[in-house]
What we know:
The complex is a heterodimer of chains A (110) and B (121). With 110 residues, chain A is mostly beta strands. Chain A contains no helices and eleven strands.
Amino acid sequence: QTVVTQEPSLSVSPGGTVTLTCGLRSGSVSTSYYPSWYQQTPGQAPRTLIYSTNTRSSGVPDRFSGSILGNKAALTITGAQADDESDYYCVLYMGSGISVFGGGTKLTVL
Amino acid sequence: EVQLVESGGGVVRPGGSLRLSCAASGFTFAGYGMTWVRQAPGKGLEWVSGINWNGGSTGYADSVKGRFTISRDNAKNSLYLQMNSLRAEDTALYHCARAGYDFWSVPLGPWGQGTLVTVSS
């Protein structure tokens, strides 16, 4: 059973920078896992932010960026705004047509 | 405008079946993979299944393998999820999402608003 790990919760001050990570319980995340990131606010459908490690989806502001940091995928929000307060999920491609979501990170902006 | 609209959800007894549909518009449906993602009440997102552009390749989460079948009809711009032997733990809001051509199991968006499946006796 593949387990994708994310911080359960993080907080950031308005205008600050925060990095969310996406790892594997066993092993390292590389670009081969095609890490992708999603934002979801309560009652809404998810919104795709980043795919293929660092490609921003259409309309996503450039204060959202993706990367590989060490052995994990990372989503960095620079200049956090109040409406960035959301749940954030990553997904990793495991091969053979299988993808797995992480458990999600609840981001608080305060 | 690119749009995905799910339908077919409802209340079903354990062991029962449902068929979900996702109607696509505003893009060349046959040029993309498609995925189903679900979210149980108060829980996180769970990848369920993916299908490549022509239906020739599919993938399933372990939790649904052998019970769910994904399919598509490119002539009708529609994606389907046949769900059999339903369990209480399948209760969730089911979203369809457009995927890529190569990484067809990774949701790239857009996403539909979802259809609710409730499995209860």
